[in-house]
Design brief:
Elements lengths: L11 H6 L6 H13 L5 E5 L9 H6 L4 E3 L4 H13 L3 E7 H6 L2 H10 L5 E5 L17 H6 L5 E3 L4 H13 L4 E5 L20 E4 L4 E5 L3 H14 L4 E5 L2 E3 L3 H10 L2 E9 L4 H10 L9 E6 L8 H7 L4 H14 L1
Parallel strand pairs: 1-2, 1-3, 3-4, 4-6, 5-6, 8-9, 8-11, 11-12
Antiparallel strand pairs: 5-10, 7-9
Helix pairs in contact: 2-8, 4-6, 9-13
Length: about 325
């Protein structure tokens, strides 16, 4: 006599939570090398960060096309602008807090204002350097870079979008900041879906609540959406891969076609994605405004690993579910 056993059925949320994860810096480096083999215009500039920017293989294959300026971020951006003005496509790479914080004046004057096609690559953004504390956390970058006209801000959510961001930078060079994540994330993009400048990507559709997430928070938004859907809540998930130009049409659509919006970002909410969404929603006619919840940082983060810090600031699927329910209760 045989005894049949049944395996527990894995929910969609559990399946998403258990998906393999990847470091987007690897996809960045692989794509940069692949394109550089056929395009001699591509060069890399870094601030004594060959290893942490994942440029070791690029340096070994193209030793005369990598410029290491040392720990001199302002010089690094200036060198990048000079190379761009000479017809090259410089990928200026450095830890995001130092690339954006120390050299903000050069990013403003030499890149955005001068419209030099420099590709600024903010490595290990957000709280990826968690244990090194607030000096190494890059959670203000979206806020101060959004204030610069003429600078594209791209936040790839996974390996596919990271490769596409590099491809787009080479195919159509323009002043660009790419937030290249170090904290491992699963693949979330629709296979083969294009990365379109200034457009969010709809990962699932719904008509009750919209979750708008960027970078590391996109996969967590999908888990939250699966949990809400299992409870009968119809959820739209938008991957905000472009913070600038902003997909105003997608935000207006979310406000008019769903009853509430929740945003999530591994960044300070003062001036980031949530503030951008709020700015659009607040300008709509009274009947189109919907309850909005903004998840992100409101203070300097303590020291700890990235997963701990994301939990500390309620940047988890569980808290996204709670925020969605609270927003819907106000609708």
């Amino acid at each position: 006599m045989s005894i049949e056993t049944t395996q527990p059925v894995q929910t969609e949320a559990e399946r998403l939570s258990a998906a393999p994860t990847y470091d987007n810096r690897t996809a960045f480096a692989d794509e940069l090398i692949r394109l550089a083999r056929t395009d001699a215009r591509i060069v890399a500039v870094c601030n004594d960060s060959v290893g942490s920017s994942n440029l070791t293989a690029f340096r070994d294959e193209f030793p005369d096309r990598l410029i290491n300026v040392g720990i001199a971020e302002q010089d690094m951006v200036g060198v990048g602008a000079g190379l761009a003005s000479s017809g090259l496509i410089p990928f200026v790479c450095g830890a995001s807090p130092f690339l954006t914080g120390r050299s903000l004046e050069q990013v403003k004057a030499d890149v955005a204002y001068s419209q030099h096609p420099v590709i600024l690559c903010g490595m290990s953004p957000g709280m990826a350097y968690g244990e090194l504390g607030p000096t190494h956390h890059s959670v203000e970058d979206l806020s101060w870079l959004r204030a610069l006209p003429g600078l594209d801000i791209v936040v790839p959510a996974d390996r596919q979008q990271t490769r596409q961001a590099v491809q787009a930078a080479v195919a159509n060079p323009r002043p660009t900041f790419i937030r290249v994540g170090r904290h491992k994330v699963p693949d979330v993009s629709i296979e083969g879906a294009p990365l379109v400048r200034g457009e969010f990507q709809t990962l699932r559709d719904g008509n009750d609540v919209t979750l708008i997430a960027t970078g590391t928070l996109v996969s967590r938004a999908l888990v939250a959406a699966a949990e809400l859907e299992a409870a009968g809540v119809s959820v739209r998930v938008l991957n905000a891969s472009y913070i600038a130009p902003l997909d105003i049409a997608a935000i207006i659509g979310a406000a008019r076609e769903t009853r509430a919006i929740v945003t999530a970002e591994e960044a300070n909410i003062a001036g980031g994605l949530g503030a951008a969404v709020a700015g659009v929603v607040s300008q709509l006619e009274r009947g189109a405004r919907v309850p909005l919840r903004i998840l992100g940082l409101t203070e300097f983060a303590p020291t700890g690993n990235t997963d701990f810090l994301l939990e500390y600031f309620n940047l988890t699927a569980t808290h996204l579910v709670t925020a969605a329910r609270e927003a819907l209760a106000d609708a």
